[in-house]
Amino acid sequence: MDPKNIWITFPELLIWFPLVAGLVTFFIRNEKTVKAWAVLASVITLGISVVSLLYADNTKHFYLNNVSYFWLKYLGSNFSIGLDGMGHMLTALTAVAFPLIFIATNKTSYKNANLFYGLMLLTQAGLMGVFTAMDLLVFYFFWELAVIPAYFLCSRWGGERRIQATFKFFVYTFTGSLLMLVGIIYVYMHSAPSASSEHSFSMNAIYSAVLSPEEKSWLFWLFFVAFAIKMPVFPFHTWQPDTYEQAPTSTTMVLSGIMVKMGVFAVIRWILPVFPDAVMKFDNIVIGLSVFGMIYASLIAIKQDDLKRFVAYSSIAHIGLMCAAIFTRSEIGLQGVMIQMFSHGINIIGMWIVVDLVEKQTGTRKISDLGGIAHKAPALTIFLVVIALANIALPLTNAFVGEFMMFGGLFKFNMVYTAVALISIILAAVYTLNMVQKVFYGEANTITGAMQDITVSQKFVLAVLVVFIFLFGVYPQPLFDITKDTVTAIITRIK
Amino acid sequence: MNAIILTAIWGVVMMLGGAFIKSKTTPKYLAIAGLAVIIAANCMQLNSGLSYFTVDVKDMLHFNSLNLMFINVAFGCTLLYFLLSGRDIEKVGENVSEYFALIFFILCGIAIISTFNSLLMLFIGIEIVSIPLYILTGSDKRNLKSNEAALKYFLMGAFSTGIMLLGIAFLYGGSATGTFYIDNIISGNAPMPPMIASGLVLLLVSMSFKASAAPFHFWTPDVYDGAPTVFTSFMATIVKAAVFFAFVRLFENTFGTMHSQWQTLVVILIAATLLVGNLTAVFQQSVKRMLAYSSIAQAGFMLFSLFALNNLAKEGLVLYAAAYSLASIGLFAILIKMKDYTIDGFNGLGKQQPLLAVTATLFLLSLTGIPLTAGFMSKFYMLQAAIQNGHHIWLVIFAVLCAAISAYYYFRVIQAMFFKEAAADVVLADDVTPAFKVLLVITAVLIIALGLFPSLLIDWLYF
Q1: Residues A387-409: tens digit of each pLDDT
Q2: What confidence score (pLDDT) does residue A68 get?
């Protein structure tokens, strides 16, 4: 397509639309209108994302997917945003997740709903920005900005201990970000020049920065700590169970379904290609930490009695595997991570929706207090079982494809890690099935006795998620097609 | 030249006018109008080099676009300060026009210390800034704390002035030709003779005192806490930034060539200032005192310009001065309106006065250094300048860790405003006018504008 005829590009639409929609939301007074507007806005964003996927081929439609404005000219930072394969996939995940979250939690009533939904949409805009940034400083801007609305969401509408828990989350991520900022400036000082400045923040300039091996070693840690906190990887995970527990459930869905992917995404985009030597040097440490974190989190998940904390720990275990697979630097492992980023987003949002439904009706999250929901809410139970099986990565579900490939990558790297990591799969089956059995089967008690089955809109959301689970479990090819180029480009760069 | 002479004249006019003006509100408008004219005159000089006064200064003052731009920033912030807090200056005491006159004299001093080229002018400028400040600190005459603060400030200030004079004398004696011109005192980067070295250390100590860098900061919390809050706002922002500007100007022009010989001293200063400022601020219960300590912490970041001493550092310092002053002036203006100055006093402000709370949040985010605000850009410039300098990367990492600590105390105020219930029905002691709200919004917009496009300010430095 001729670049002259394009007046707006997909990444711009994906960022500006939720941003404007979120700002508009602040001024709507009526709660019903706010909710309808939020769903509408997020569906429109989804529409934009779907259309962008039709034009995903960057060899033909480069100018539809990439744009750059002058910004800080003398610093060599331009407002460059663009969609490559990985960006397409993650913006699509973000676009899919928000309408589902809004519909699923439609029954929840929020004080000052306009502020709540406005901030949610702003978070979406920030996330879109992170996934599309093609300039390191722009990336940093969005990386921080995505957290600020999330901070207010959790602190304002969360549970009892929300203020402390959220603040812990904020301080963790802020510390990480600042360390990364030092790293960013240092790399920038060694980057290639641009037309109007001595150095540049553009992705290509950063990728070709000239750094000595020692510099790469310590810079690697400045970046990695920031991303490891976000993912989170053991031992940087301690903020996560508290925050997930205390945040309002719809925000937790965003945090765990999408925001966590920011960390994984950032490692692939900004660590692998910039510090390949350091990645090779420290791969054993990182994979060791990840694998240890998997086992550690799985063991804690077995002992958890709180449903929200349970899901939080199971998420740490899954993210650990993704982090380990990235550092194997194998094509199959990295491809697996791509698939799993999408699948994990879908599955964990499904888990949260079920947890939220149970909590809303029974008023408790304690696994030991619940039981026998299957008799009262059969439809909910069916959906849950499918999602739970996907959580264990059973064949035919979407998570199986990704995990299988990641284990393939890990296997090539080192047998011992693979063996240990595989134990966590068994543990995942133990804790997930244990939870399903205790919460949903057995005799109904006084707490669960009054439960009713889910409504049509909730069925719809869960059905959509289950369709995704099976669709990509049986036919993951579309995900491969989108992300293949990114994976190949990164692997060739680090080889 | 315009700025120096006009502020002096206007200060005298305001002081004498006080004898004839009976109304309490007139001096404020007079001051605002006068300052606006002075800023316009200064812009004129910046734009076309046009000065209404031709004075042979014997090269003791230097006017270039960097200096004039800094004067613009300082005066512009003062104008905003007059507009936001003018009504509160009227409430301090009886002699309203005298307060404004004193502030104009301080501005005159600020203009001198931003343009000095001779150690004598530096000394005169610093004194012109300091003496009215002693008076302003003690202007709440019936308040013991205010009196105590003024006395303390005066004694400590007089002491540091003595040290500065001794330092200047050493430099005069140590220079080859016996000169006060800062760029002639030293040439080359040969090892320092002992006379020059002791002069340097004495000047470093006295300037650190004026800029409240640790370990010479002990007067700061008491003085800032004791002085009437409106004047604390002025002292902690504009005056402090100006002193920093003079600090950097002095060391760059006098000792710039032997930077590597004294850089270690600055490293120690920075590390101590950041650590002391941030750690002590964490434990404060009063927002006013917290801001006093946070101003020490922010001084630590401003000291990076002295550490790096490159172009980026100078750009960064001007940006930092603007960002820090804007955010702090706005925050102080809101603080003055509060009944209770403790952090708990802010509880529930978000519900009762959403606009005040939202703008205060933005100011606090800017002080923390969150992207999209001027505070981030100024920290970014400082860190970049320090990294470009290439030495002591650990200090940069240490600085960002301290910035992470600062999030703790700034966010406590945000938490109080939005997430906690108000103790009283009304947390404000004073009515806020629509004009006040509009000005707060303008300040907030300025902060975001500078955070997105710092070149709005920085481009002016290279005329």
Answers
A1: 999 988 888 888 898 899 999 99
A2: 83
Cα(A168)–Cα(A470) distance, integer angstroms: 37
Q: Which domain holds residue B32?
A: 2-462
Confidence of residue B179 (pLDDT cuts 50, 70, 90): confident
Q: Is the peptide bond before A232 cis (omega within 30 degrees of 0)?
A: yes
A311 in Cβ contact with A256 (< 8 Å): yes
pLDDT at B351: 85
DSSP class of residue A160 equals T
Threshold 0.80, pTM exceeds:
yes
What stretches in chain A show pLDDT beneath 70? 1-4
A325 closest CA partner among A236, A411, A424: A411
Residues from A contacting B (CB-CB < 8 Å) are 71-74, 140-141, 144-145, 148, 152, 155-156, 162-163, 167, 170-171, 174-175, 178-179, 181-182, 185-186, 188-189, 222
At residue A430, φ and ψ (nearest 5 deg) are -60, -55
pLDDT digits (tens, 9 = 90+) for B58-106: 888 888 888 888 999 999 999 999 999 888 888 888 888 889 999 999 9
Q: What is the secondary structure of B113-182 as a DSSP string?
A: HHHB-BHHHHHHHHHHHHHHHHHHHT-STT-HHHHHHHHHHHHHHHHHHHHHHHHHHHHHHHSSS---BG
For residue A273, cis peptide bond before it (omega within 30 degrees of 0): no
ipTM of the complex: 0.91
- Name the domain count of chain B: 1
Residue ranges per structural domain of chain A: 1-274, 275-495
Q: Counting Cβ atoms within 10 Å, is residue B448 exposed (0-12), middle (13-18) or buried (19+)?
A: middle
List the single residue in B368, B404, B419 with the smallest CB-CB distance to A175: B404
Alpha helix ranges (H) inside B303-392? 304-308, 311-336, 349-352, 354-368, 374-389
Smallest Cα distance from B328 to chain A, Å: 21
pLDDT band at B342 (very low <50, low <70, confident <90, very high): confident
